[in-house]
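Tokens for chain A. Residues wanted.
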């Protein structure tokens, strides 16, 4: 191991809060054959997120160079980024927005899923040697995760799932998800230590889940289970966080009140999350419409897409597709 690279657990702590990097040219597009991850193979799964941003240049550079997304289209109002030609993140140019407030309902983090553990280790090395600041590392039993913030404070998780055959499902239908120390040494073992930005995301890189700040996890459960038809897969004992999914994935949606308990409607002129979108199998769309109507959820239809407001006034989009 080169003396300039020391990614032990102790050394990893020194990159928490490290100096942000200065970014240059955009990352190139990368495409290759891949097997879709389990997270995006279920009948309902995360499609994309849209963020309101105050500095389009800086935010585009972060998502293209640090996370390796390709710029699919760009104009003065919006930039769309993705992988394998699939749109994952849309940035809306809102320079006059007020900064996001963690005490409000909104985005806790967007979780970008690597196709395998080796790619997660490679990205960690790239981020580390280029001075990308982290906010945490965790072993969640079902996955291994790295945490950071984008330049405007939106949470980001980059993670890799462990094989679903090894997940532990309890008798109450909940999956075991821990928060243990990540074995960083093992994650990067045997991988090359030299890596430069811009980074290019590997084939199959997708958003595996979104984690939301909410005012009340019971209301979140009523919306995601009662109205949209997801299953609750985990509930922290004091109900400070609840997790939901489709198709026995560990979670497509997380919700917590750790900073936002009691939060009301999200302001419309605040940077951060504008909307989150799900892909829904076409044969499930009619049932989704019926549940939303029966639930009394504010909703609208934009062609074949259904848009519903969550209890905190965030539009959640449901797009038919595979």
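Reply:
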């Amino acid at each position: 191991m080169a003396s300039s690279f020391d990614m032990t657990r102790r050394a990893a702590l020194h990159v928490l809060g490290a100096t942000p990097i200065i970014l240059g040219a955009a990352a190139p597009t990368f495409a290759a054959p891949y097997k879709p991850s389990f997270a995006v193979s279920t009948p309902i799964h995360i499609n994309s997120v849209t963020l309101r941003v105050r500095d389009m240049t800086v935010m585009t550079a972060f998502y293209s160079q640090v996370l390796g997304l390709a710029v699919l289209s760009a104009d003065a109002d919006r930039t769309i980024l993705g992988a394998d030609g699939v749109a994952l993140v849309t940035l809306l140019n809102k320079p006059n927005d007020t900064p996001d407030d963690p005490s409000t309902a909104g985005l806790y983090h967007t979780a970008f899923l690597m196709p395998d553990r080796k790619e997660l280790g490679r990205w960690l090395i790239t981020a580390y040697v280029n001075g990308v600041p982290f906010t945490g590392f965790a072993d969640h039993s079902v996955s291994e995760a790295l945490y950071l913030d984008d330049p405007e404070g939106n949470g980001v998780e980059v993670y890799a799932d462990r094989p679903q055959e090894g997940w532990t499902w309890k008798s109450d239908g909940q999956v075991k998800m821990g928060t243990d120390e990540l074995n960083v040494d093992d994650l990067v073992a045997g991988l090359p230590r030299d890596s430069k930005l811009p980074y290019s995301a590997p084939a199959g890189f997708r958003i595996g889940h979104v984690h939301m700040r909410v005012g009340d996890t019971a209301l979140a459960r009523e919306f995601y289970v009662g109205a949209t038809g997801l299953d609750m897969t985990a509930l922290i004992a004091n109900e400070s966080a609840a997790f939901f999914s489709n198709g026995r994935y560990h979670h497509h949606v997380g919700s917590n009140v750790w900073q936002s308990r009691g939060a009301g409607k999200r302001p419309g002129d605040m940077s951060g999350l504008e909307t989150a979108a799900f892909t829904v199998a076409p044969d499930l769309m009619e049932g989704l419409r019926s549940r939303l109507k029966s639930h009394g959820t504010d909703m609208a239809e934009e062609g074949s897409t259904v848009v519903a407001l969550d209890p905190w006034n965030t539009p959640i989009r449901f797009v038919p597709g595979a």
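The first helix runs from residue 9 to 13. The two ends are 44 Å apart (CA to CA).
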